Amino acid sequence: MGGSFLENVMMGIYKITNTITGEEYIGSSNNTAKRMKQHKYHLLKNKHHNVKLQRSWNKYGSSVFMFEHILDFEGTRENLIKLEEYTILQSNKKLFNIITENLQSPAMNTQVADKISNTLTGRQLSDSHKKNIGIAHSGKQLTENNLQKLKDAVVQYWSSDETKTYRSYKLKEMWKTSEHREKMLNNRSERIITDITRQKISDKLTGINRSEETRKKISNSKRGVPTKPMSEETKRKISETKLKKKSIDKVDM
Question: What does the domain layout of the chain look like in residue ranges?
């Protein structure tokens, strides 16, 4: 966290986020910057009062934690506590906060409730807020362990069935528009494969053992022999694509 960020005196709600697991700690203070600095001090000393947060800090390291002031507030300390409790209860994230049975949604006036709702729903970060986050993360170096965890998380996300299904759906929806199809055709016609790229492709394919069936399919494909009979709809689509490509080429000439 940068010094200029910590020196900003702001009353309101703050949160501490483990960017690897997504878990959050939500708190309130008359001076959120000072309070977050105290949290970081105790975490570094391994003496934080919240055992779950301290264990997470010890496991993942300081570099993956983000400290943010998320909501300004003007009012009494009593209402600020209510605002904190409401924010905790409305959060859909896994929290480090210990939720007790007597923590129930507090009664609030309409003005305070609207302020919270407007802040937490579709919240857009201001330029100054983005700058503060940038300052907080400047100079941070991820450990090899944290980098590997980030890589594993990315691989897990892109290889999940849910992500594959969503991407397939979005691509099909995009392909339905004539604008997108035209853009794809333009990109293909303008694509230039460099010698370096060709070499990389060659290196990737070298040593691959293909079955007799696969080699036959590749051979037929190069000779223009279809691997299976094409339907009338497929033929029509290919014909339309070729005509569109020709019309685009004529316009470019």
Answer: 3-140, 218-253
Token pair for residue 179? 């604008």
Confidence at 121, pLDDT banded by 50, 70, 90: low
C-beta separation of 71 from 12 below 8 A: yes
CATH topology classification for 3-140: GIY-YIG endonuclease (3.40.1440)
User: What digits encode the pLDDT tens for the residues 71-107?
Assistant: 888 888 888 888 888 888 888 888 998 875 555 444 4
Task: Say if CB 67 and CB 36 are below 8 A apart.
Answer: yes
SS3 sequence, 181-240?
Answer: HHHHHHHHHHCCCCHHHHHHHHHHHCCCCCCHHHHHHHHHHHCCCCCCCCCHHHHHHHHH
Helix (H) or strand (E) holding 88: helix 77-90
Amino acid sitting at position 130: K
What's the rounded Cα separation, in Å, for the pair 250 and 3? 60
pLDDT confidence of residue 182: 77
Q: Which residues contact 136 (CB under 8 A, 6 or more apart)?
A: 1, 2, 5, 66, 67, 68
CB 5 within 8 A of CB 33: yes
Identity of the residue numbered 31: N
Residue-level pLDDT at 9? 65
Which of 150, 77, 71, 152 shows the shortest CA–CA distance to 113?
71
pLDDT at site 134: 65
